[in-house]
Structures are given as structure tokens and as C-alpha cells.
Amino acid sequence: MKTSFVEKVLSLIQGGDESKIKRFHKKIVKAWKNQIRIRKDEIEKLKEQIEDKNEELSEAIFNVDVSQIQTTESTDAYVETYSQKINKINVDLDSFAKQIDVKNTEIKQFEDLVNLVS
Q1: What's the whole-model pTM score?
Q2: pLDDT for the residue numbered 10
């Protein structure tokens, strides 16, 4: 038979503080579930930012400024500018993906804590 969080804590302390421990248990589980919800909301916002950046990337790739490629010299300079713009968007996309990974790890940790005390 699995011992509850409250039972385990009560076995370690003296006196009849069961109601305090139950209240604490309820509050800590609520706080952890709130943290899970917050991170899930943050992930949704990051996913929206990824969608926006993917659109920006498509536009940047196919939006070549013909006026910047009239001569060999101007083309060479534009290649650098164009590449930097594309690379910046890709760096942003990588950053968003990494942030989502971190948030998912944090969610898993909070879920593990909730399961541990449930």
C-alpha cells in the first residue's frame, strides 16, 4: 500500500499537525501545477513566434532586392547582407526551439514532483 505525502510527513513530525500538512500539500501541488500551466502557455507563445519566424524566413529567402545586385561589387556586398539576415532568422529559430526544450524539461520536473507527493 502506497503511503501518502501527508502520512509520510506526519510520521516524521511530532504532534497532531495533520491539517497543516494537508493544507501545505494542497498548496504545493497547486503551485507546481500552476508552474506547469505557465510553462505550457510559454511554449504556445514560442510556437507562435516560430511560425512567425518561419514566415519571415520564407519572405527573406525569396525577397531578393534586385537593385542591390546590379554590379559585381554590389552583388558581393548584398550576398553578405542577405546571408546575415537569413542566418539571424535561423539563430532565432534555434533559440526558440531550445527554449521549448528547456520548458518541456521543467514541465517534466514539476510533473514528477506532483506525482511524487500524490
Answers
A1: 0.82
A2: 72
